[in-house]
């Protein structure tokens, strides 16, 4: 297949490939079977996995995005915030990883995300059910539940800024998202919802 050399399953996928603008984030390149699980390689260089146990869907998550080898997308030049999506059974989550000045955030703190059209979403953060894996002061141990309408907003709108409020912080931390990463995150949401609606929810 002529496309195979561009979309081969490789650890260097994100580093060595330039994004082909002919392929949209919800353009399915191929579907792979890995044990009980299924993986979907999409045109935006995302690989999304459906976790299955005894033939039943239990989870949906990123095996890789075009900017990260994990299910998180680095949106801050200083690596202060990582975001991603995760579905467990039928509950959707926005998952977070924090480091540097955001490392003090904990369950019960508040995240507010503002979009380009001034829509705002406010989330009460909760802890992940699994212990986080820490690496270079980074841990993905927080998440927030997403309604379907909230998830769809990430698909259609560009995120503009975020604000964290915490009792452990003297003042709320508010920062703008980089324009390039804001666009990439909307594409990540498009890929995720494409698999969620077309392959996870319907089977």
Key features?
203 residues, alpha+beta, 9-stranded antiparallel sheet, 4-stranded antiparallel sheet, 3 helices, 17% helix, 39% strand, globular, disordered N terminus
Strand and helix map with partners:
Layout: H1 13-16, E1 28-34, E2 37-42, E3 47-53, E4 56-64, E5 73-74, E6 81-88, E7 91-98, E8 110-115, E9 120-124, E10 126-127, E11 139-146, H2 148-156, E12 159-165, E13 173-176, H3 179-200
Antiparallel strand pairs: 1-2, 2-3, 3-4, 4-6, 5-6, 6-7, 7-11, 8-9, 8-12, 10-11, 12-13
Helix pairs in contact: 2-3
Question: Would you kindly provide a written description of the structure presented here, covering whatever features stand out?
Answer:
It is a single chain. By secondary structure, the protein is an alpha+beta fold. The chain has one domain (27-66, 81-201). Helices cover 17% and strands 39% of the residues. The chain has helices at 13-16, 148-156, 179-200, and strands at residues 28-34, 37-42, 47-53, 56-64, 73-74, 81-88, 91-98, 110-115, 120-124, 126-127, 139-146, 159-165, 173-176. Strands 1, 2, 3, 4, 5, 6, 7, 10 and 11 form a 9-stranded antiparallel sheet that branches. It has a 4-stranded antiparallel sheet with strand order 9-8-12-13. A hairpin with a 2-residue loop joins strand 3 (47-53) and strand 4 (56-64). Helix 2 (148-156) packs across helix 3 (179-200).
Main sheet overview = 9 strands, antiparallel
Q: Which blocks of ≥5 consecutive residues have pLDDT under 50?
A: 1-22, 131-138
SSE class: alpha+beta
| Total number of beta strands | 13
Distance between the termini: 28 Å
Multimer state: single chain
Roughly what percent helix? 10-25%
Arithmetic mean pLDDT: 76
Quick one: overall form?
Answer: globular
Number of domain units: 1
Order of helices and strands: HEEEEEEEEEEEHEEH
Total DSSP helices: 3
Proportion in β-strands: 35-45%
Radius of gyration based on Cα positions: 17 Å
């Amino acid at each position: 297949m002529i496309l195979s050399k561009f979309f081969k399953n490789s650890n260097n996928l994100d580093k060595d490939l330039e994004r082909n603008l002919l392929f949209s984030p919800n353009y399915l390149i191929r579907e792979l079977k890995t044990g009980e699980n299924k993986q979907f390689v999409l045109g935006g260089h995302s690989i999304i996995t459906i976790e299955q146990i005894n033939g039943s869907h239990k989870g949906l998550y990123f095996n890789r995005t075009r900017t990260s080898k994990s299910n998180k997308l680095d949106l801050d030049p200083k690596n202060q915030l990582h975001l991603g999506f995760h579905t467990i059974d039928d509950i959707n989550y926005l998952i977070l990883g924090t480091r540097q000045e955001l490392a003090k955030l904990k369950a019960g703190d508040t995240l507010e995300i503002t979009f380009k059209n001034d829509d705002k979403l406010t989330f009460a953060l909760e802890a992940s059910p699994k212990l986080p894996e820490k690496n270079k002061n980074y841990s993905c141990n927080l998440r927030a539940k997403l309604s379907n309408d909230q998830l769809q907003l990430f698909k259609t709108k560009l995120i503009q800024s975020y604000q964290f409020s915490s009792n452990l912080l003297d003042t709320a931390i508010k920062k703008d998202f980089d324009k390039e990463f804001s666009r990439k995150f909307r594409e990540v949401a498009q890929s995720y919802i494409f698999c969620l609606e077309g392959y996870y929810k319907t089977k």
